[in-house]
Target: Branched-chain amino acid transport system permease protein
Amino acid sequence: MKEKFKWILVAILIGFMAVVPLLTESRATLNLLTQIFIIAVFAMSYDILLGYTGIISFGHALFFGSGAYIIGLLLKNIGPSIPALLTGLVAVFLFGLLISLLIGTLSLRVRDTYFAMITLAFGELFFIAALRLRSVTGGEDGFSFRVPEILQDRVVYYYVALVFLILATWVLRNFVSSPTGKVLQAIRENERRAEAIGYDVFRYKLFSTAVGGVTASLAGALYALQMRFVSASVLSVEKTLDALLMTIVGGSGTLYGAIVGSALINWVHEWFSGLARVYPIFERWLLLFGIVYILIVLFFPGGLARSFTHILERKKNASRPEIKSTIGVSCGKEKKELSV
Model:
C-alpha cells in the first residue's frame, strides 16, 4: 500500500510538471524549473558517492564542467546540428567514464580524507587549465555557442530537462536498489566488514565513481545547452560544494533528497537575488542563506526529505498501539458480557 501511494504521488507530481508550460508563460519560471531539473541530476550523481558509498569528493565539478565544455566546444566548432549534438553527448559519456575510472584508480586505494584531497587537486587542475587555455576555452570570459533549432524553444528544452530528470532518477534508483547498490551501502556502513565478507571494495567503489562521474558529465552537458554559454566557473570547487549542499539539505542516501535540495536552493537563490534588487539588505543573501543552512542542519540533521519521512513513520507507528489497545478493550468487554 505504501509503495502504491508513493508511485501515485510521483505520477501526480510528474503530471503537474508536464502541464506547467500550459499554466504559465513566464520565461523566468520555465528557466528556473529547467535549471532545477538539471542540477538535481548533478546532485543525485554526488549522492551516489556520498549517500550510498560514503565517498566525499571535492572535485565532482570536474565531471560537470567537462561535460559542459565538450558539448559547447563541439557545437561551436562543428555547428548547431543534431549530428554534432549526438556526437557531443557520446563524447561526454565516454570522457566522463574514462576520467572517472582514471581518477578512481589513482585515488580510491587511499583513505577517505586523502581521496577528497586528490579529487580536489584534479578538479583544480582542470579549472586552472580552463583559465590558461584562453584560445580554446575563452578563459574567465568563456564562450557562447548556438544550439540546434529545435532546442532553442524554451518550452521544448523544459520537456527535455524533465525527461532527463525522470530517466536519470529511474536509472539511479534501479542502480542503488540492485545487489551492487546494496553492497555499496554495506561499504558505506562498514568498509572493513564488507571487505572481510569477501567483497572487492575497491572495484565496487570504482564502479560507483564511474556511475557518478558519467551522470554528472551528462548533467553538465545539458546545463551548457540550457545556458548556451560555458566558462571556467562550471569547473570551480563552488560547483562541487553546491552539489554537496543540496545533497545534505535534501537528505543524503535518498536520491529524491537531491531533487528537494536542488529545488530549494535554486529557488532561494532566485528569490533572494530578486529581493536584492529592491532591498539592499538582501545583497548579502549568501550570509542569510548560510544561517538558514545552519538551522536546517541543526533541526533536520538527516535532511529535509529524510526527516519528513521519519516524521510520517513516527506518526504512523504512534497510532498503532492505540488501535491495539482499543481492540483489547472491546474484546475484554465482550468476554465480560459472555460470562454474565
Observations:
- The longest strand covers residues 143-144.
- Confidence is low (pLDDT under 50) at residues 323-331, 333-340.
- The two ends are 42 Å apart (CA to CA).
